[in-house]
Design a protein that fits this description.
- By secondary structure, the chain is an alpha+beta fold.
- An eight-stranded antiparallel barrel has the order 1-2-3-4-5-6-7-8. The chain has an eight-stranded antiparallel β-barrel with strand order 9-10-11-13-14-15-16-17.
- The protein starts with a helix and ends in a 19-residue tail after the last helix.
- The chain folds into three domains: 13-129, Cathepsin C, exclusion domain (Lipocalin, Beta Barrel), CATH 2.40.128; 150-240, Beta Barrel (Lipocalin), CATH 2.40.128.20; 265-429, 3-Layer(aba) Sandwich (Glutaredoxin).
- It has helices at residues 3-22, 296-312, 330-344, 358-364, 400-418, and strands at 36-44, 47-56, 64-69, 72-82, 85-89, 95-101, 107-113, 122-129, 150-157, 165-172, 175-182, 185-186, 190-195, 198-203, 210-216, 222-228, 234-240, 265-267, 273-275, 285-291, 317-325, 349-355, 376-380, 386-391.
- Helix 1 crosses helix 3 (330-344).
- It comes from Dyadobacter chenhuakuii.
- Residues 1-25 form the signal peptide.
- This is TlpA family protein disulfide reductase.
- Residues 255-411 form the Thioredoxin domain.
Length: 437
């Protein structure tokens, strides 16, 4: 079977749920969610993970569901799949909210993995219209003598102690918002509440929902549990520390001794083999982005790189995204990575690396000491040598951390772009231009 035929099969498989119900979507008596604010709640065992969203059907042919997390807004298109049911694909993530509008107006359904062969990965939820709170209704807040605003050293424990995290929290009255940063990226924006000597935060923006539930101890330290809807719970403990810091992300991943260059040959989404040694990249500054469409920090990094590349591609810059996906199948990768390409308007090359596994990624890129995180960004100079490797990605919610990252990115890229093209390469390959933005 040809690649194009296989991708049609994958797309049809993903659309089966839609087509099986669509014929009844506009029948008399059909019910749709009410427009406006909603409060949803995932429930698994004893874990409750609340989330908020808005439903907007002003354009009846293209209703939009917007997930709300603090100041973050993520829009998703809604498809009617029956007289009383909706299907909300989580954009680039191969998952969806599949739900029914009940006779009392409530919504019930599940968050479902759409990855072929991933059975059992679903999480039930229900939602009520008109409720704009997340954890505690207005007027039911409990007094608290604590203020968690500030920077925190956070230790997370799984089977063993994991690398330290840094939490940035902001408390206004009982309301609590923030972000947790680690060596691989950030949690995206968290939203919650402080009640007495307890606090809770949650996040759901498309990938797996998550809740941080903790207790404030008498000495001011915190302890608690992080619960993800489909995956295991992990414990954490933390102490406020304005000097808290993560390891230098530019020193975690590096070239093995004896290597100065990166080398790989991988298929693009049409199966054509692409290598860094191709003429297209010679004499250029090349950005290699190692990602997965299942990875929220990867999509956030792509949301930064794609517009930057459009503004700077005529300056002698190329970029390559290497995607490691949830199935080791090029047809499936063409579907998932193709969705990413369309969503973010990517104009650089996208290659398929294989299954989403750090060990596999390390094998495909043997010059690296190890593949520590998705995403990892590698910058190559005009001479073909690796100049910089950045592990993970922290987005706009991290404030100064993100601003510092962007400032260093532009400074370093401007300097590399300004370097002359080596005599061994054609000067026609590049024309240095104005600074990046």
């Amino acid at each position: 079977m040809k690649i194009n035929d296989k991708i049609k099969v994958v797309a049809l498989a993903g659309a089966t749920l839609l087509s099986s119900f669509a014929a009844t979507a506009d029948k008399p008596g059909a019910k749709s969610p009410k427009q406006g604010i909603w409060r949803g709640e995932f429930v698994i065992s004893e874990t409750h993970i609340p989330f908020n969203f808005e439903y907007n059907a002003k354009n009846a042919k293209d209703p939009i569901l917007t997930l709300l997390n603090g100041s973050r807004r993520d829009d998703f298109h809604v498809t009617k799949i029956g007289a009383d049911s909706i299907f909300v694909k989580m954009n680039t993530y191969d998952a969806a909210l599949v739900a029914k509008v009940e006779s009392d107006g409530k919504i019930t359904g599940e968050y479902r993995s759409l990855v072929p062969g991933f059975r059992g990965n679903s999480l039930p939820f229900s939602a009520e219209h008109g409720k704009d709170y997340r954890f505690v209704e207005k007027g039911k807040e409990q007094p608290t003598k604590h203020n968690l605003s500030g920077k925190w050293d956070l230790q997370v424990f799984s089977k063993a102690k994991m690398p330290d995290n840094v939490a940035l929290l902001k408390q206004e009255g009982n309301k609590l918002t923030g972000v947790v940063m680690s060596t691989v990226g950030d949690s995206r924006e968290l939203e919650g509440v402080v009640q007495g000597d307890e606090f809770v935060l949650s996040h759901f923006s498309g990938p797996n929902p998550r809740v941080y539930k903790g207790k404030i101890n008498e000495d001011g330290s915190i302890t608690g549990v992080i619960s993800s809807g489909i995956y295991d719970n992990t414990k954490f403990e933390g102490a406020k520390n304005e000097q808290a810091a993560l390891p230098d992300p530019y020193k975690l991943t590096y070239l093995k001794e004896g290597y100065t260059k990166l080398d790989f040959t991988l298929p693009d989404l049409d199966g054509k083999q692409v290598s860094l040694s191709d003429d297209k990249y010679k004499g250029k500054v090349v950005i290699v982005e190692i990602i997965g469409t299942w990875c929220p920090n990867c999509t956030d990094q792509t949301a930064f790189l794609s517009p930057w590349f459009k503004e700077n591609k005529k300056r002698g810059v190329e970029a390559i995204a290497i995607g490691f996906e949830q199935k080791d199948d090029l047809a499936y990768a063409k579907y998932t990575l193709g969705t990413l390409k369309k969503k973010y308007g990517i104009e650089y090359d996208i290659l398929f690396g294989g299954i989403a596994d750090k060990k596999v990624a390390s094998e495909k890129l043997p010059a690296l000491n190890r593949m520590m995180a998705f995403p990892t960004t590698i910058i190559i100079g005009r001479d073909g040598e690796v100049k910089q490797i950045h592990t993970g990605y922290t987005g706009t919610v991290t404030g100064k951390y993100f601003e510092d990252y962007v400032a260093k990115w532009n400074k370093d890229l401007d300097a590399l772009i300004a370097e002359p093209v080596p005599a061994t390469f054609s000067s026609a390959n590049t024309t240095p231009a104005k600074s990046g933005k």
